[in-house]
Design brief:
about 725 residues; alpha/beta
């Protein structure tokens, strides 16, 4: 590093974020591939090394880089531990290799090379002076052998010996080496940062008595159901004491009834603040037992870190200077015009005593870490300084590198991106608002094929209590199922809010919020309605869990998207492989539902292409003599194309369908036709839903939603997985 003369040009290094200002992100066990343009003046032979080390280590590990083409070089290393790694590139003109190349050319041309051989001997002597005693003896022997023989061919053979080349790589002249600056970093997280399924678990709404707040102990009873649906992160909204002053009622009404629990985001009362739990939920020991139960079931608890204070929070009396003040000296409540949050006081992170405030917020995270929490969902981080998050997350992860942070920031894209760069492990996305192929395609390409793939892990939440898209309000269960499958397969990290499996879609008039929001009430979390709806939805969630479990080890870490998928077809011994790059595959009919949705997803996230399906299925005894039909249609106003499967050998029905997708793509939809026979098939030109009842028996599993989604519950899902 002492050499300030850059003899080699190193540029266009990839991956790098903002010229090295922020680290890239990977997960333990991932491979980091680094490439760069490396070149220099003249004809010298260039040698380049990728250097890496665990941050804090003194020595580097050097890996030779491979020259690809057009001055592009590349090498890879594996990150094996959670934490931070450093990497850079070193390149230099190799004097020995350059000299040896010229020697070979001159000898081949029949030129006198006596002077060149003497020059080579001097190089070996100089390198020997830098080497330890053992290697110095080897250098001395080689120099003596060169002095004995005057034959240029013998000299060239000695200079080309692999042992000598290796010694010169170690001890040759590197005085003109160029080191890329600044030193770059990789933030390595646990695999759960990349591959996880989140379930928002509202603790006070898990009881059996309507209107009564449930406890942590009652929450334990629901954990097996959450686990069965394939979720491994149980996310808790704030569990702290709730203030009484200006407490809100249902649907954010200004007047709360005597039994209204208020918003859990109005944190703090005489019973404590951010380091206490709401007494109605139980005690800290009860919470610890719940966390331990989750761990025993292979799940983790994610806790909401909401930096909000009710007027009753202890901070208000102990640190009034931490808050925003009006001209009359009173504390200002939170506002997002025209919305008002009279029950919340926001903290001023630029106050005169901000260092004490920042340290206190850090201590809140450390407190819950000591109670077994390793994942935090941060509420509205875009309303606090980015420098605070970069400092606090960095400080926490220096001591607890396995801790993860999810940024719940629905704001303008640049702020979402800088929060991810500053240290947030995962980020909320605009997926909730993306409902059509063109905007899903555009958005997923932005997340997975551009610079964001190196630092932004999008957590696709299908809904939130405050965001109920029109498609969910009007689409019914098929829309909920479609959004669930899209979220679970478009990203390796996804989540739903409790109640999603119940298809709760009653919205506030003129708004996109769920009516009688859970954060303003204590809803009954069990009963016939939950059991029935959850059971119907669970069949789909379990099926998706099975797909994700099979793909968990082959998710592309740098893109957060599924690249290959394995399905168990029939018996456990029979496995068919389905790759997104393979347009043709054979699958049993019972699994065609998710396959059709998956293939539709491929059309969403990848360029459209000619595709081909072959359907092979055994006749289902419970459905009599069934025939299989695959319907293919375009989102445009055009008639569906239907194909009736023909008879195959060994009792199988086989049909091959080919369709050329246009830029809008095709949707694939399977249907089972009962004993009505093939004459009941569609006629080309007939609009969807026209006279369907006259052409299908009661066993026909067909559904057409106005959003043109596939309804999985209308298909034949496996009874047991």
């Amino acid at each position: 590093m002492e050499n300030y003369f850059q003899s080699v040009v190193i540029e266009q290094v990839h991956p790098v974020i903002d010229a090295g200002r922020y680290p890239i992100k990977r997960e333990e066990g991932d491979t980091v591939t680094v490439s760069a343009d490396i070149y220099k003046d003249g004809h010298d032979v260039i040698v380049a090394f990728l250097r890496y080390r665990k941050k804090g280590a003194k020595s580097w590990t050097d890996l030779p880089m491979e020259h690809l083409s057009s001055d592009r070089w590349q090498a890879s290393f594996t990150v094996t531990e959670v934490g931070r790694y450093e990497y850079t590139i070193m390149a230099y003109p190799d004097a020995f290799l350059s000299w040896r190349s010229d020697l070979e050319k001159k000898q081949a041309a029949g030129m006198n090379v006596v002077s060149e051989i003497l020059e080579g001997q001097r190089m070996l002597k100089d390198a020997g002076k830098q080497a330890p005693a053992k290697d110095r003896e080897v250098f001395d022997k080689l120099v003596a052998a060169l002095q004995v023989s005057a034959d240029p061919r013998v000299a060239l053979a000695i200079f080309n010996a692999p042992e000598l080349t290796e010694l010169m790589d170690r001890w040759g002249d590197k005085s003109l080496a160029t080191h890329f600056e600044p030193i770059l970093e990789v933030k390595v997280d646990r695999v759960r940062a990349r591959f996880a399924a989140w379930y928002e678990f509202f603790p006070r709404s898990q009881g059996k008595v309507p209107g009564e707040c449930s406890t942590f102990k009652e929450c334990e009873e629901r954990l097996p159901d959450v686990k069965a649906m394939g979720f491994d992160v149980v996310y808790f909204p704030p569990i702290h004491p709730i203030g009484m002053t200006n407490r809100k009622g249902p649907n954010n009404t200004l007047t709360a009834g005597p039994n209204d629990p208020g918003s859990p985001y109005a944190i703090g009362s005489h019973e404590g603040g951010h380091k206490a739990v709401e007494p109605k939920l139980g005690t800290l020991d009860d919470f610890d037992a719940l966390v331990q139960k989750c761990h025993e079931m292979g799940m983790e608890v994610a806790l909401d870190f909401a930096i909000n204070c009710s007027p009753d929070h202890p901070y208000v009396k102990e640190h009034p200077d931490w808050f925003f003040k009006r001209p009359d000296g009173t504390i200002k409540y939170a506002e997002n015009p025209p919305k008002k949050y009279q029950d919340i006081y926001p903290l001023n992170f630029h106050c005169a005593n901000r260092e004490e405030l920042w340290q206190e917020m850090k201590s809140v995270i450390e407190f819950w870490i000591q109670h077994g929490v390793r994942i935090f969902r941060v509420d509205n981080p875009h309303t606090k300084p980015v420098t605070f998050w970069e400092w606090m997350i960095g400080e926490i992860q220096n001591d607890y590198p396995d801790v993860q942070f999810l940024a719940e920031a629905f704001t303008h894209p640049k702020m979402m991106r800088v929060l991810a760069k500053a240290g947030f492990t995962q980020s909320y996305t605009y997926f909730t608002w993306r409902n059509f192929k063109w905007d899903l395609t555009e958005y997923m390409q932005e997340l997975t094929q551009g610079p964001m793939r190196e630092y932004f892990r999008g957590n696709l939440f299908a809904n939130t209590p405050d965001i109920l898209p029109t498609i969910l309000q009007e689409g019914g269960r098929p829309a909920f199922e479609m959004r669930f499958v899209l979220a679970a397969t478009l990203s390796s990290v996804y989540g739903i809010y409790s109640g999603f499996e119940l298809c709760e879609n009653a919205a506030l008039p003129g708004r996109r919020s769920i009516s009688i929001r859970k954060n303003m009430s204590a809803k009954c979390g069990t009963g016939i309605a939950r059991e029935t709806s959850s059971r119907l939805f669970r069949r789909l969630t379990v099926f998706v869990k099975r797909i994700r479990r099979c793909t968990s080890t082959i998710i592309s870490s740098s893109t957060n998207r599924i690249t290959k998928i394995f399905w168990y077809m029939g018996s456990a011994a029979q496995t068919n492989r389905i790759s997104s790059s393979s347009p043709s595959t054979s699958i049993p009919f019972r699994d065609i539902t998710l396959m059709s949705i998956y293939r539709w997803r491929v059309l969403v996230s990848r360029s459209t292409r000619l595709f081909r399906f072959t359907i092979c299925s055994m006749t289902n005894a419970t459905c009599g003599r069934a025939r299989r039909i695959m319907s293919v249609w375009s989102p445009a106003s055009r008639p569906p194309m239907s194909f009736v499967c023909g008879a195959g050998s060994s009792g199988r029905t086989i049909s091959t369908i080919s369709a050329c997708s246009e830029s809008r793509g095709y949707y694939l939809k399977p249907a089972v036709i009962g004993s009505c026979g093939p004459h009941a098939a569609f006629k080309s030109g007939r609009s969807a839903g026209q006279n369907r009842s006259a052409r299908f028996s009661s066993r026909a599993s067909i559904y057409h939603h106005k959003y043109r989604c596939v309804s999985p519950t209308c298909m034949r899902l496996p009874e047991a997985i």
